[in-house]
TrEMBL record:
Keywords: Oxidoreductase
Pfam family, one: Aldedh
Active site as annotated: 238
SUPFAM superfamilies, sorted: ALDH-like
Name of the molecule in the record: Aldehyde dehydrogenase
Gene3D superfamilies: Aldehyde Dehydrogenase, Chain A, domain 1 (3.40.605.10), Aldehyde Dehydrogenase, Chain A, domain 2 (3.40.309.10)
Organism expressing this protein natively: Streptomyces hydrogenans
């Protein structure tokens, strides 16, 4: 299938934004670098399109099913472009495209339910649901297509229109996705805008936007919330995590080592709900470190386009510098790299898969979100100590417990301060379940019916049983 050109937004004039291949560290293409003031026309067109889009639920269902087909038809070209700009292995890019198609189908078939209130009064009270209006979706660079769909699929299904802004590090696949969907959706129902800041800030604070859904860092999320507050727009914020994996003393290390490793290192560790800290009983701590380090030393690292690659590069130079910084801080404070611990020689943004031991518990690689291929493994003497440590950061996205006694593991999982807890696996989500964090990990709920209702507002109609005379 030839690569379709992303459709230009009428009336916009744009400079260009260089896009870097993280496997080489060199620019390979470019995208429009749109000016913040150009958003006025984009949002106005989205609002005009909203009036027609919200009025026909049956047509929306059909359009979203056709959109899913279109995404899957374009899967090869989308996946390759995604790997080129993001860096992840091609198999992971194909999975991201497949998830996007599945999400469109899921929300196409999901509709809000009218609810009758029976409170004893001589009145029929009925709760109906209405779309909120144009939605701003601001998406990071780690899963640009999948996270975009997680925002626009429920918003579109609810009857809203969407202005979608990807990260300037990964604009190309999202623009291509917008072009693919433009062939099957009405004009201006979904518009992709690309560019550097302050484009995103202006979009979040635009008075024509009624819901802002954002995934990214905590500081940027706070800024997004402040910008949206000026127009009293609704906000949904997914602000990352520092997920802990707590291993119990009955865990079978050999049995869970592969699952635990990939829960931490998939997508080069650039996953908001990846395992970012492991707490292991002191008795088996060395065994856990060795099992993870052996996998880190032998896993194939390289360009995501190479079919043998399992871990690609860090996506961008600033994030690579961040990963290097937290690793050096830990090593300087007394930690030891059982595997990795350094940037790899040669071109591109490659960092060796790293397993750290003897890490001070107050090291930034433990207390902050490193968002890269670095995993600290910390020992604990008693379970209460481990749970306190797992809950001891400002994050609360996910967590997991690993052990043989599932009832005991579930009881421990119930003590974790997070939005989702897994037992003997991690970071696996169904399209039908809610996804939300606590503490600094976010505001609002995505996923399942909750994601749909997050894009709707209640509308109540009261009607008397009998007309008064």
């Amino acid at each position: 299938m030839p690569t379709p050109e992303a459709a230009p937004v009428p009336g916009l004039r744009a400079a260009r934004l260089a896009v870097v291949d993280p496997a080489t560290g060199e620019p390979f293409d470019e995208a429009p670098d749109q000016r913040p003031e150009e958003l006025d026309e984009v949002v106005a067109r989205a609002r005009r399109a909203w009036h027609g889009w919200r009025s026909d639920p049956a047509a929306r269902t059909t359009a979203l099913r056709v959109a899913a087909d279109a995404v899957e038809t374009a899967g090869d070209v989308l996946a390759r472009l995604l790997t080129r700009e993001q860096g992840k292995p091609l198999t992971e890019s194909y999975a991201e495209i497949a998830r996007t198609g599945a999400r469109l189908r899921y929300f196409a078939d999901l509709a809000p339910r009218t609810h009758r209130i029976d409170d004893g009064r001589p009145v029929h009270s009925e709760i109906r649901w209405r779309p909120v209006g144009p939605v701003a979706a601001i998406v990071p660079w780690n899963f640009p297509i999948q996270l975009a769909a997680a925002k626009f699929a429920p918003a579109l299904a609810a009857g809203n229109t969407v202005v979608l802004k990807p990260s300037p590090h990964t604009p190309l696949a999202t623009r291509l996705l917008g072009s693919v969907l433009a062939t099957v959706l009405p004009d201006d129902v979904l518009t992709v805008v690309t560019g550097r800041e302050p484009l995103g800030a202006r979009l979040a604070g635009h008075r024509g936007i009624r819901h802002v859904t954002f995934t990214g860092s905590v500081p940027t999320g706070r800024a997004v919330a402040e910008a949206a507050a000026a127009s009293l727009a609704r906000v949904t914020l997914e602000l990352g995590g520092n997920d802990a994996a707590v291993l119990l003393d009955d865990v079978d290390v050999d049995r869970i080592a592969d699952r635990l490793f990939w829960a931490a290192f998939r997508n080069c560790g650039q996953v908001c709900m990846a395992v970012k800290r492991v707490y292991a009983p002191a008795r088996i701590h060395a065994e856990v470190v060795e099992a993870l380090a052996q996998r880190a030393k032998t896993v194939a690292v390289g360009s995501g386009l190479d079919p043998d690659t399992r871990i690609g590069p860090v996506n961008n130079a600033p994030q690579l510098a961040r990963v290097e910084q937290v690793t050096r801080q830990a090593l300087a404070a007394g930690a030891r790299a059982a595997a990795g611990g350094r940037r790899l020689d040669g071109a591109g943004y490659f960092f060796a898969p790293t397993v750290l031991t003897d890490v001070p518990p107050d090291s930034p690689v433990v207390t902050e979100e490193q968002f890269g291929p670095v995993l600290p493994v910390l020992p604990y003497r008693n379970l209460d100590e481990a749970i306190t440590a797992a809950n001891g950061t400002g994050f609360g996205l996910g967590g997991s417990v690993w052990g043989t006694d599932l009832d005991r593991a579930e009881a421990v999982a119930d003590r974790l301060e997070c939005g989702t807890a897994w037992i003997n696996h991690h970071a696996e989500l169904s399209l039908a379940q809610p996804f939300a964090g606590v503490k600094d990990s976010g505001v609002g709920v995505a996923g399942g019916p909750w994601g749909l209702y997050g894009n709707l507002r209640p509308f109540v109609v009261h009607r008397p049983w009998e007309e008064e005379t």
